[in-house]
Every structure is written in structure tokens, then in C-alpha cells.
Specification:
The chain is built from one helix and four strands, in the order E-E-E-E-H. The chain has one helix at about 45-60; strands at about 5-10, 20, 30-35, 40-45. A four-stranded antiparallel β-sheet has the order 1-2-3-4. InterPro entries: DUF397.
């Protein structure tokens, strides 16, 4: 299995923590806490991740 290549959110700043996302592995979106890069990784299907993003946008509408 390929290693995840995580990137920080474009909303991340030097004084705020955020999540990191990896989308380089087929059929998987991986999420981890930027404060704990060696910690747990959550894995989602791309469809589940897209639904989560839509829900966030709708709630911040």
C-alpha cells in the first residue's frame, strides 16, 4: 500500500492547529490531527468525505 501524502488545510495558520488530508491513495481519504502526526489516521471513502464536506458547507451557509 502506498504511503499517505498529507497536506495541511489552506485555512491553517502558524497559530492555529488543523487537520491534514491525504488523497493520494485510491478510494481512500485519510485525515489526521496536525498536532499528532504519529497518532491515529481516520480513513473515509471519497463519497463519504464529499458528503461530510457538503454537510459542513450547508451548516456554515
Amino acid at each position: 500500500m502506498a504511503a499517505f501524502e498529507f497536506r495541511k488545510s489552506s485555512f491553517s495558520t502558524g497559530d492555529r492547529e488543523c487537520v491534514e488530508v491525504a488523497t493520494n491513495v485510491p478510494n481512500t481519504v485519510a485525515i489526521r490531527d496536525s498536532k499528532d502526526p504519529e497518532g491515529r489516521i481516520l480513513r473515509f471513502t471519497p463519497a463519504a468525505w464529499a458528503a461530510f464536506q457538503r454537510a459542513l458547507r450547508a451548516s456554515n451557509g
